[in-house]
Amino acid sequence: MLTISRFIKPKLTALLVAAVAFNAWAQPRETVTNTPKSLREDITIEHYMKIEPEAVRIIQHPVTGDIYYTTFFGDVFKIVITNNQPESKKILSAEDHGITRLQGAAFKGNTLFLAGNINVNNNKGNKGRMVRYELTNGDDKPEMTVVFNTVEYGANKTTFDHGWNALEISPDGKYIFVNTGARTDHGEVQDNGGEYPNARDNALTANIFRFPIDSKDLLLSTDTQKLKADGYLYAEGIRNAYDMAFDPKGNLFAVSNSGDYDHSEDMFWVRQGHHYGFPWVMGGIDNPQQFPDYQPNPDTDPFLSKFAFAWLMKYFHNDPDFPKRPAGVKFSPGVQNMGPDANEYRDRKTGLVVDGDSTGIGVSTFNAHSSPLGLFFDTKNALGKDLTGDGFVIRYTGGPRNGVANPSPLRKQGRDLLHLEMAYDKATDNYKVKTTRIIDGFTSPTDALLVGNSLYIIEYGGKQGGNKSGGSIWKVTLPANEKMAKRNKKKRS
Q1: What angle do CA 207, 425, 374 make, to 5 degrees?
Q2: SS3 15
Q3: What residues contact 178, with CB distance under 8 A and at least 6 apart?
């Protein structure tokens, strides 16, 4: 298990890791395009196009039907068809919108929303930023409006500074949701060489915000009570919900990454006013650093790998000043994964990695270090067979990789697409999920877009040795509902 800093320039480590909601269990980037493999006979996969490096989001203009994608360093591309072949046309860059680390994108009608982060104080500090563009008059020089900026707060030198990222529009079109990830691995002090003394997470990190869709020129501070009074702070205590999506019933779900400890990766049913536990609980397991007598030791604690970046950098340590749990607050647990896939976990009593299928225990929610991204639901019931109206998520990491014969038992599978069958459990007032792998073998997938029964999955790409390698977009054809299947058949004939 290796840190990503072995494969990319150290100065970019924190930025690129945040871009893919990644953690210190990263893996080498592959330069050869491998075709993903369908695990069902009724799913087909084809290579759609090569794209620019550092691709993060893929979205569709709901009015024109055009598909766009964005890159981490601020570019916005429209996919155009030239001589029957898809090509990338750049329409915006960081120089236009001012977001130097672009991680969120969403459409509401003709309005394009972009969100991310700005480096300040000689790259030692950070500001969050969201803007919107009206694309009613074509793509040339669209009008921009600032939705919000934040006050400055400390960035850091780690791989765990996640920043502002995921965007999602409410089903009624009245609100836009945005996630802001933690600036720490597990709530430790990250002072950036003393530049921001005693800085841990704050009101502008590890939370989900909600803004009226027409908001403009807001300035967000680190005053938690004011953010709540203004109605902006929607849910607290989520380490990094790098993607969010509404299900067909209008419930908001988010997938989050845990840190370098062997916590599972959570999926949450996100509800207003709820607190989901970070930094005190991740993956349904207590964060040990909150206990005054904690003395970390990988030799005696199987949840802490001696190769973990946060251990090597001494971010796990005795921490008697760790913030106390908020009094009177009940943490909301994650969705419980009942298998058959992505439900391996480390047993708290034995320290061994076990499969929830064998123990009969639900996991909150996916196996550790798998980086769930690209969450979406079949909200229009366009899919057929057992997929109708269900959810899906991609895992960025895990699975076989070059030069590693025996991966961690927590990540033997990954880089795949999971089918999620959600079921509400009245007894716990929470959801359970049946999780099944349906596609295997992606290379660093970061986002997904469902259009009818066609699914577009975008891969990060990245750079190797200064050379632009770029990624790919894969087009996946899923089973269609009966009406759509007949229409597709008619088009082909």
Answers
A1: 45
A2: helix
A3: 104, 115, 130, 164, 165, 166, 167, 208, 209, 210, 211
| Residue from 235, 237, 233, 234 nearest 220 by CA | 233
CA distance 41 to 342: 21
Q: Which of 275, 171, 291 is nearest to 224 (CA)?
A: 275
DSSP run (H or E) holding 119: strand 111-120
- Interatomic CA distance for residues 110 and 84, integer angstroms: 25
For position 404, what pLDDT does the model report? 53
Q: How far apart are CA 211 and CA 301, in angstroms?
A: 42
Cα 473 from Cα 414, distance rounded (Å)? 18
Q: Model confidence at 158, in pLDDT bands (50, 70, 90)? A: confident
Mean pLDDT computed over 175-181: 98
Torsion of CA 203, 393, 460, 93, to 10 degrees: -50
Mean pLDDT of 183-210: 96
Q: Are 26 and 397 in contact (CB under 8 A)?
A: yes
User: 427: how many CB neighbours lie within 10 A of its CB?
Assistant: 5
Q: Are 210 and 176 in contact (CB under 8 A)?
A: yes
Q: What is the pLDDT of residue 401?
A: 65
pLDDT tens digits, one per residue of 212-258: 999 999 999 999 999 999 999 999 999 999 999 999 999 999 999 99
Question: Rounded to 10 degrees, what is the CA torsion of 89, 139, 141, 166?
Answer: -80
d(CA 291, CA 286): 9
Integer Cα distance of 298 and 321 in angstroms: 22
User: What ranges make up the beta strands (E) of 347-466?
Assistant: 353-355, 372-377, 391-395, 416-425, 430-440, 445-451, 454-459, 463-464
Q: 179: which 2 tokens?
A: 């996630």
Q: Is the dihedral of CA 122, 128, 134, 135 positive or negative?
A: positive
Helix, strand, coil % in the chain, rounded to nearest 5 = 10, 40, 50
